[in-house]
Amino acid sequence: MSSSPAKTGGDTRKILGPGGNRVRDSEEQKKKKKEGMKKTELRSKKAAASLTPKTILPVRSNGSVDSSYSSDSSIAKDMNFSKRGVERSTGVKKPAKVVPHGVEVEAAETFSPVVPIPLRRCDWITPNSEPLYISFHDEEWGNPVYDDTKLYELLALSQVLAEMTWPAILNKRHIFRKLFDNFDPSCLANVNEKRLRSLRENGNSLLSEPKIRAIVENAKHFQKIQQDFGSFSNYFWRFVNHKPIKSGFRYARQVPAKTPKSELMSKDLMKRGFICVGPTVVYSFMQVAGIFNDHLITCFRYNECNNNNINKHSQTKLVKTDTQGRDPVENNTHMSNDHLSLT
Predict the structure, then answer these.
(1) How high is the pLDDT of residue 6?
(2) Residue 82 belongs to what H/E stretch?
(3) For position 19, what pLDDT does the model report?
(4) Mean pLDDT per 10-residue interval, the chain, length 343 residues
(5) Antiparallel, parallel or unpaired: β 93-94 and 292-293
(6) Beta carbons of 206 and 175 less than 8 angstroms apart
(7) Does the pTM of the predicted model rise above 0.85?
(8) 111: exposed, middle or buried (C-beta count within 10 Å: 0-12, 13-18, 19+)?
(9) Which of 5, 129, 244, 257 is the most exposed place for a label (fewest CB within 10 A)?
(10) Which residues make Cβ contacts (< 8 Å) with residue 77, sequence separation at least 6?
(11) Which residues does the annotation place in the binding site for Zn(2+)?
(12) Cβ-contact 267, 243 below 8 angstroms
């Protein structure tokens, strides 16, 4: 007699899989697992998007649940990689740019400070040069000068160069000006012997007696030139036809100690009674007063002195010449017939 199996509560007994006690995943469980994976990927993408673009590499998704590469660990790895820098194909690492929050990388580049380029000066100006000497080079030496009192001061200081250097002269310039009445030729020309003796006593620690006497005595001959030529500036600039000479030296070793022009002016000054005005002294005077632009062509002052001359040349009072190319003062009876030609 056959009998049918008994029903237990109307439920069907679950079938065990081949693995033993583990039950096969139902379709509903598989669906939940896929949704969880999608949520994890969505969180990873949002975290990557919140970081600075251009510095974080995109996170790769991995569909394998059993894989050891997780989304969270990939984000941390990419963040550390962006801090260290991006390694190019050449193997050189470029540091990552740190910009303020909310500022674009291109805009942040404009905030970088601009480093000024140092000025290129003549070779005799070094990093160890005194600031006063550097200022003298940058503002005075080689500038065309047309004022008579200024010209006399520079002539006197050029005579002092035989005993002192320019830095030493500049440091004591205020003492020289006080001692020699601001190098005013009209004042020095009236110095008597008693006053000259006082100058020698007060300035004995600074200059030798011949230099002190030369600065005083030359003031008288300086005034004589002013009377003959209208101004010492007219006489002075006639040696170069009222136009500075641009030497165009590239190296300091090319700058000479004297030139034919300085020798010519030296002879003419001594002929007029000046003392301590050799060709070397006169050439130093021509350099500092701007007749010769002896700034090296690599120096920024070379072009500046040329431009200064263009601006001032139109204001300079030039001496008119007669039909034979001579100055009107040369026709005076007190002038010698063997007057030197300076043009």
Answers:
(1) 46
(2) helix 71-84
(3) 45
(4) 48 45 55 70 67 48 45 50 48 54 52 70 93 95 96 96 94 94 93 85 84 93 96 96 93 94 97 96 97 95 80 42 37 35 32
(5) unpaired
(6) yes
(7) no
(8) exposed
(9) 5
(10) none
(11) 122, 137, 295, 299
(12) no
Of 157, 121, 192, 145, which is closest to residue 316 (Cα–Cα)? 145
Residue 302 in tokens = 């070379």
pLDDT score at 313: 45
Which residues sit in the known binding site?
A: 122, 137, 295, 299
> Tell me, what's the pLDDT at 95?
56
Helix, coil or strand: residue 245 = strand
Cα gap 20→37, rounded to integer Å: 28
264 touches 339 (CB < 8 A): no
Nearest of 68, 88, 142 to residue 292 by alpha carbon: 142
3-state secondary structure of 98: coil
| pLDDT on residue 192 | 85
DSSP 250-308: SSGGG--S--HHHHHHHHHHHHTT--S--HHHHHHHHHHTTSEE-S-TTSHHHHHHHHH
Cα–Cα distance list, 114 to 81, 100, 106, 111 (Å) = 30, 19, 16, 9
**34, two tokens:** 């896929």
Q: What is the pLDDT of residue 134?
A: 95
Distance of CA 256 to the CA centre of its chain: 27
Write the CB contacts of 224 (distance below 8 Å, at least 6 apart in sequence).
Answer: 272, 273
Beta carbons of 26 and 57 less than 8 angstroms apart: no
SS3 94: strand
Q: Decide: helix, strand or coil at residue 87.
A: strand
* Whole-number pLDDT of residue 93: 52
Question: What is the C-alpha separation between 264 and 241, in angstroms, rounded?
Answer: 14
Give every CB contact of residue 130 below 8 A, 6+ residues apart in sequence. 167, 170, 171
